[in-house]
């Protein structure tokens, strides 16, 4: 197998893993009445975010964030609150129920991921180490500065 063929197979396998995890997330989110976009927004709301910032984080048009915010509010998952810095700006903030939903979806998905079912604990530790290495992170998941990363 050539290096190019190997790299293509790695890419194909990663795409399949990402698709599998995405499908698990959509399924878990759907059990709470969330669309894929709503679930993605739920996981980006780890702090109060302006509608504009949320649109940047999920990669959609700012006008579509209004639809997402309406849906999350209707489900009791998030509320709009005025920004402390600029009262004209509305932040989207998770409710306690929203935090519980996010925790439950995380629990459901992490328990069914391909690595949690196909790899033993030592293999998962190795896999995490390899992922962190590829992402330029130190062992604890902390980003490594470019000076500390050896060039190949």
Number of strands: 3
Helix content: 55-70%
CATH architecture verdict of the largest domain: Orthogonal Bundle
Query: What does the overall shape look like?
Result: elongated
Average pLDDT works out at 88
How many helical stretches? 7
Largest sheet: 3 strands, antiparallel
Strand content: 5-15%
Structural class: mainly alpha
Q: pLDDT under 50 segments (min length 5)?
A: 146-152
In whole angstroms, the N-to-C terminal distance is: 21 Å
Order of H and E elements: HHEHHEEHHH
User: How many discrete structural domains?
Assistant: 2
The side-by-side strand order for the widest beta sheet comes to: 1-3-2
What is the radius of gyration computed over CA atoms, rounded to a whole number of angstroms? 19 Å
> What would the CATH topology of the largest domain be?
Arc Repressor Mutant, subunit A
Tell me the CATH superfamily of the largest domain: Winged helix-like DNA-binding domain superfamily/Winged helix DNA-binding domain
| CATH class identity of the largest domain | Mainly Alpha
List the helices and strands and how they pair.
Layout lengths: L2 H28 L5 H9 L4 E2 H8 L3 H13 L3 E5 L7 E5 L1 H15 L3 H5 L2 H14 L18
Antiparallel strand pairs: 1-3, 2-3
Helix pairs in contact: 1-5, 2-4, 3-4
Structure, described:
Strand 2 (78-82) and strand 3 form a beta hairpin. This protein has two domains: 3-112, Winged helix-like DNA-binding domain superfamily/Winged helix DNA-binding domain (Arc Repressor Mutant, subunit A, Orthogonal Bundle), CATH 1.10.10; 119-145, no CATH class. The two termini are 21 Å apart. The chain is built from seven helices and three strands, in the order ααβααββααα. It has 152 residues and is mainly alpha-helical. 61% of the residues lie in helices and 8% in strands. It has helices at residues 3-30, 36-44, 51-58, 62-74, 96-110, 114-118, 121-134; strands at 49-50, 78-82, 90-94. 16% of the residues are buried. Helix 3 (51-58) crosses helix 4.
């Amino acid at each position: 197998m050539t290096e190019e063929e190997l790299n293509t197979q790695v890419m194909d396998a990663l795409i399949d893993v990402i698709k599998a995890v995405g499908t698990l997330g959509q399924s878990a989110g759907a059990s709470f009445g969330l669309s894929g976009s709503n679930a993605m927004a739920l996981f980006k709301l780890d702090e109060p975010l302006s509608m504009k910032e949320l649109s940047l984080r999920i990669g959609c048009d700012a006008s579509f964030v209004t639809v997402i915010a309406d849906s999350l509010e209707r489900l009791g998952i998030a509320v709009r609150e005025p920004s402390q810095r600029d009262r004209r700006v509305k932040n989207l903030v998770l409710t306690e129920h929203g935090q519980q939903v996010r925790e439950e979806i995380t629990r459901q998905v992490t328990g069914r991921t391909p690595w949690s079912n196909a790899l033993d604990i030592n293999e998962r530790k190795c896999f995490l180490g390899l992922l962190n290495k590829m992402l330029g992170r130190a062992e604890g998941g902390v980003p490594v500065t470019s000076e500390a990363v050896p060039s190949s």
